[in-house]
Known about the structure:
The chain is built from three helices and six strands. By secondary structure, it is of the alpha/beta class. The strands form two sheets. The chain has a four-stranded mixed β-sheet with strand order 4-3-5-6, sandwiched between helices. Strands 1-2 form a two-stranded antiparallel sheet. Helix 1 (25-36) crosses helix 2 (54-66).
Amino acid sequence: MLFDNFDTFSTNIALISEDGVELSYGELQSKVNEIKLTLLSKKKLVFIESSNNVVTLLYYIACMQLGHPVLLLNIESEVQNSHLIHHYQPNIVINTRNNEATVKVIN
Length: 107
């Protein structure tokens, strides 16, 4: 899968954050592994109310590596997000505002 071979490139730079912090693929995978411990391992529908930040990317990769189907939502579209959450009833909703994550397990 696309996100399963970070170890192959562990010393290469994976991303440079908005504030100039560089993360290698190895460091990225280490942070993703920490997040994976906090998420349910059984396949669940996940919505991520996302911003353009590192935390969004970390949670997205963690969910993908665990096999969760993920829908990225625009964090600024609260009315639309509420409608989608009501209609599809995801098991987990993650908000990544201000480069911090709030994880809400619904069912």
